[in-house]
Write a structure and sequence with these properties.
The structure is a homohexamer of 135-residue chains. By secondary structure, chain A is mainly α. Chain A has seven helices and no strands.
């Protein structure tokens, strides 16, 4: 359970600053569903607006990385950070953007392998090869 | 500095089990350069072989995710885990596989955004929407 | 569910070393409620005493940081470490010490922002400015 | 060393979108010093603007949490995330905002204690007391 | 709930590559019980085989570290990484290998203490003593 | 470089509360060397005493886990938390307590494997088997 209240649609209707963001979320995603993350953030309308506009700019704008890859990167970070909610929501988003079972299986393997080599490198405290330096 | 010794090429020459893996690393990557990570792992030839064969299977085999995307996922995990060496080596690998400045900039932004929403979700302890459940 | 048993008040009554700590927890906090953390630690009476005396010294003694700020710092660490139980218990403690909705909203935003810039700095491996060095 | 180039003032002068943000950083902080974090982010002018405007809103606007407390919360998150650069830069910022040696010592102790109880709770997988639930 | 399906024994029977690994898990562990981790990994038969063979080599082969100590090290890493499932499964494994209540209590205390000193060291950014350098 | 000053022996001599702890560290460890961690903590004499007495009780007292195993558990936690200083100091301590190259190699492999399966479990969000529940 959350440490704050999750706002219902009826409550959102009464706060114009929140309502405007929820309307934009629905229009941008072309879906009526607004998930609990936004209902929690809605307790602080300014924060809601800041986070949503940023997410819209990074995840929905045309860009050099395709939408499915973006979601896979998001899952990777969320896994390493241990954020269950984020893993579930972005796995659902990746599925909605066409992630196949094979791609999901490979994503899980890459995340696991990186987790392993990160730990190996850290345990051995490997020093940086000069070849990796950015000039 | 490392907590173990990093094996030089001269030392590797004397341990057939290690030499065989180093030869395969060089052949697979089509490069003479073998970075320090493998020189540290080489202290334990069985571990060296296990980790390399796994990395070869996950990162070099034909697959449903393209090589550059794999490297970006690796960078994402390594960043969330705070592994400096891994971030440097996989950023270099991604660059070698064609990552542009624009893609790198977006990757950094997605990682940063995921870091933010992971922390927001965790601080608020947002409960899972039933829509995200896998049936 | 816990990986150890949580001791009930009836069980605590029978172990004088545990009973003494529980009595001090109740007296110090001016509340009869002893939460599950202490009931788990009670399996190791020496550890229970060590952790409680430390917490009492750091969190309850007069000091240069006010009690509410201490709880907010505790929530910040617990969030970055992903400890759900700790986030819940210290958010409840902060509320009991007067944290307002506005303060909670700002706390969540600061934690989220720090999560973001921590990830950005790490992904870019920003080198330390000499101005930040302690002489 | 960074995985990207850090832009010098001479380079910043040539990119109006970056120059505008650097000017605002200098004006807001009342200091000519712009630290390396912003010089790295400047590679992506849109990201630079997004992150700075957010940091300005969260850390510099009038609010319910005082500026020094904000910096201490930032240090707490950065420590749990292991971001050396962030710990150094925000410890310097906290000092500039008046953090005393006594407050720094207590901050370090609270962070350490939270690190300990976070690990204890997680190792024992303590279940949530119903008293901590938000209604 | 998982982000992938967990394969039942009936489903495993139909996939020879998965069946072979499950048979080996049962034979190696001398138990009919195959836990959910393997049922999730079974969605990707090659990954299942890779991970199992590695775990078998590291955790079940004769070695310089005794089986119970290995499980305690596993619990330590899993706790610091916040992996609830892993903490539960490896605590059960350690118990099955003879971990006493006293040993479990001490393990929890060591993990907690390391969590604390890790945070203290990081908050203070302690520089490495030359005595700890590996020559 | 540290965010606080590290106290020299000459400075320690002038603060009786710190001197007493340093004397006990030297006597308990049977060594004149006092590493930087304690020289940083010494800025807060009460914290120095609290942390040292705890470490002495957990790491130096007779107990159900042998001294070398304790150090390996410490290395495991420190690696997962990414604390370079801690990894170096406790690897040196483990070596001093007799850790062989073979044991170190296995320790590194177990830590790496746990890092991998922790990430795999988290990415797949594996649900707990009822068999792992503590009654």
């Amino acid at each position: 359970m959350a440490t704050i209240r999750l706002l219902s649609d009826a409550e959102v209707e009464k706060i114009p600053a929140v309502k405007a963001v929820f309307d934009d979320i629905r229009a941008t995603r072309k879906s009526d569903f607004v998930n609990n993350f936004w209902r929690g953030l809605a307790n602080d309308p300014a924060a809601l607006k800041r986070v949503w506009e940023q997410l819209k700019a990074v995840m929905f704008a045309d860009s050099a990385i395709d939408p499915l890859t973006k979601e896979m990167i998001y899952i990777a970070v969320s896994t390493a950070n241990g954020c269950s909610y984020c893993i579930h929501s972005h796995t659902a988003a990746a599925r909605a953007k066409g992630m196949t079972d094979a791609q999901h299986g490979e994503l899980v393997s890459i995340i696991g392998l990186a987790g392993q080599t990160n730990h190996l490198v850290t345990a051995m405290q490997i020093s940086l090869d000069p070849q990796f330096e950015v000039k």
